[in-house]
Amino acid sequence: MTWRKRILETAGLEAALREIATPSMSPTIRPGDTIRFRRNRRSPHPGEIWVFHRGPQHIVHRILWVRPDGSALFKGDACHRTDGFIPRRQLFGPVSEIRRGDRWRPANRRRDRLLGLTYSLTRTAAYLAARRIFRLGKRLAARVE
Q1: SS3 content of the chain, % helix, strand, coil (to 5)
Q2: Could you tell me how far CA 119 lies from the centroid of its own chain?
Q3: Which residues have CB under 8 Å from 92's CB, separation 6+?
Q4: Are 42 and 48 in contact (CB under 8 A)?
Q5: Which residues, at least 6 apart from 22, have a Cβ–Cβ distance to it below 8 Å?
Q6: Which of 32, 63, 96, 121 has its CA 20 to 30 A from that of 46?
Q7: What is the pTM of this model?
Q8: Was domain 3-144 assigned CATH 3.40.630.10?
Q9: Which residues contact 40 (CB under 8 A, 6 or more apart)?
Q10: pLDDT digits (tens, 9 = 90+) for 78-129
Q11: Is the CB of residue 72 less than 8 Å from the CB of residue 91?
């Protein structure tokens, strides 16, 4: 990538394209998919998929909650834990499109945000319930012995 392109992307004057390498947002965004996003100063909304930076790394996850100060709680759809609240200054911008194969499709439509939030939160709730049942089973087994 040229320095000119990087400057235009950072300033929000040009859209950025990035290939996704990890399955943290599966099934919404799979490894090998390409995303298009642009720096944006607007306020994020729950359910949207945004890019934020943590050090030199850009991370693409879903917003679960937004505080009045603009910081947002992020979580990957396929992850069990959240990323914590990310300060507004570290938010880059929302994902506008996702390409799988040769087809681009819009991201962050109202229906997609609702389905994504439901999937992400249900997956976490199931994980926490299974973990609690496992721990309870271990305690009961210890009592029987």
Answers
A1: 30, 30, 35
A2: 12
A3: 37, 39, 40, 50, 51, 52, 53, 58
A4: no
A5: 31
A6: 32
A7: 0.84
A8: no
A9: 12, 92, 93, 94
A10: 998 899 999 999 999 999 999 999 999 999 999 999 999 999 999 889 988 9
A11: yes
User: What is the structure's pLDDT at 46?
Assistant: 94
Tell me the residue ranges of DSSP E strands in 9-136.
16-19, 34-37, 49-54, 57-66, 72-75, 84-86, 91-100, 103-106
Q: Is the pLDDT of residue 41 over 80?
A: yes
Domain boundaries, the chain: 3-144
Integer Cα distance of 118 and 6 in angstroms:
35
Look at residue 72 in the predicted model and tell me its pLDDT. 97
